[in-house]
Amino acid sequence: MRVLLIHSDYIEYEVKDKALKEPEPIPEEMKKGRMEEVLVAFISVEKVDEKNPEEVVARAVKEIVEVAEQVKTKNVFVYPFAHLSSELAKPSVALEVLKKVEEGLRNAGYNVGRAPFGYYKAFKLSCKGHPLAELSRTIVPEGIVEEEVPEALKKEETELVSYWYILTPEGELIEVDKFDFTGHENLRKFVNYEIAKNRIAEREPPHVRLMLEQELVDYEPGSDPGNLRYYPKGRLIKSLLEQYVTEKVIEYGAMEVETPIMYDFEHPALEKYLNRFPARQYIVLSGDKKYFLRFAACFGQFLIKKDAIISYRNLPLRMYELTRYSFRREKRGELSGLRRLRAFTMPDMHTLAKDIEQAKEEFKKQFKLSMEVLEGVGLTPEDYEVAIRFTEDFWKENRNFIVELVKIIGKPVLVEMWKQRFFYFILKFEFNFVDNLDKAAALSTVQIDVENAERFGITYYGENGEEKHPLILHCSPSGAIERVMYAILEKQARLMAQGKKPMFPLWLSPIQVRVIPVSGEYLDYALYIAGKLEGAKIRVDVDDEDDRLNKKIRKAEKEWIPYIVVVGQREKENGTITVRRRSDGKQYETRIEELIREIKSQTEGFPYKPRPLPLLLSMRPKFRG
């Protein structure tokens, strides 16, 4: 079943003609209708619903009631709308389902209207236009699900009730439909995405074209969808990001470990955790044993901590692994370039804290760490939106703490609140990048976990020698590395749409300097300059191909090269270079030592790796035709 929910000032309709040979018989008064202050449910009953219509009705009623409660209306109008699907149920089944949905809503205490089934109708409505006013839902009978789905994911999709607010740096908690989004358009897009929960990519996001054009990443037809291949330049960027985040986390105080990617499905603690974590797993059979591929570093780190002897003096205890890879069987329609994958690289730190006060202190530090990490890859708070999620009780007891987090970020954030704790955590934040298709993807995140220390038998010895269960913070200060690449590329696509030049942060640029001799006569001087740069640990290449100078410069521009160095007779005689700087378009003549100083001042403190391709362009293969 497909459901489109529109919160409206009114809806009115009028029957015009038969759409089916045998439409629903209706009395004269049902040929026209109107309802005001109403939640309109446009519904397509689909072929798959025939397998279990009772379940579909029950879930549809629950979804509609949940939204009606959120928009605070007791009026619901059921409108048959075949245009939401191309796989429609038989008319007899569809009419029966619609009538039962109407009956279920009425039994739930709602004033319900329904448009007749099987007719062409003219209709008018006036959508209220707030973030909750337009929502879509897809309801699938449980019996047709082919893959094994954890209980947590099923319950999240069917039982979780969220209350949405905007929290300002001044501490105002405002219902989303009452917040003035003027000046916060990106936040409005993020709110709409989160509430609608539509993760399907209707078209290809712009970063996909860029990752292919720049020969960074490509789809791998020989693997499962959502598993990608990385060409040399893409692998360099990914590797530098991995190294950068790892260094920041270790500098923060984490101990790096390594754990398996495969775990026993029947391990008692793991089995329980699987059913609390809303993610689909890859299943691996080895003989008669069933294993799952990890979807995070939690399991390995928890099992290490379980076997460790830990004192209160050791807390907070931070452990870290860069998981290459973590695996989640995301829905095929949600796979989208680098935004959502089935195999991804996740920097994963878990911190043991002795009590809630220590956990909150760590949470705030890791909030700031995440901001610092994203700033290093070129993403400022202007580039992402913040979601903070917690229970109502946590908000009442820790309001000042949460407001302090919002003050740190310095702008309004989205709040998702639950009446009771649904997940294993009581508090979570995410920094979310909103892309050029208005889809959001979580980058940095931290959670305070109150369940898994006990579930896995993790304890520490208190001051009096008593054993206690710590709290656990789950932290990824950047989010998946692939998703960071996605955010960087989507940001560049946005800049290009504004007429600005795209470029990577200088420390991430696969080639930082291209040396172009004006002719083959000056190739030796070009190689001398390249040698100087390479000796200073700057990634440089030389365009030795037999092209005109302008064409070589255009080629370097298309590859987003930050510095183009041109050398000819004058430069060789004077021992200088002519530089084109991409960041501001400036062209100037200088000495090589000055350029080295300029580049090193911008890349200091960031990791370095050598050039990923041959020095001479003439020696390079082309990875995409």
The CATH architecture of the largest domain can be given as 2-Layer Sandwich
What is the helical fraction, as a range of percent? 25-40%
- List the domain count as a whole number: 3
CATH topology of the largest domain: BirA Bifunctional Protein, domain 2
Count every helix, treating DSSP H or I runs of 4 or more residues as helices.
16
CATH superfamily of the largest domain: Bira Bifunctional Protein, Domain 2
Strand tally, please? 28
- Rg over alpha carbons: 29 Å
Large-scale geometry: globular
Strands in their spatial order, largest beta sheet? 8-7-18-17-19-20-23-16-15-11
Terminus-to-terminus distance: 43 Å
What portion of residues belong to β-strands? 25-35%
Q: What's the CATH C level of the largest domain?
A: Alpha Beta
Derived from helix and strand composition plus strand pairing, the structural class reads alpha+beta
pLDDT < 50 stretches: none
Please summarize what this structure is.
This protein is α+β, with helices and mostly antiparallel strands and 625 residues long. Helix 1 crosses helix 2, helix 5 (206-213) crosses helix 12 and helix 6 (232-252) packs across helix 12.
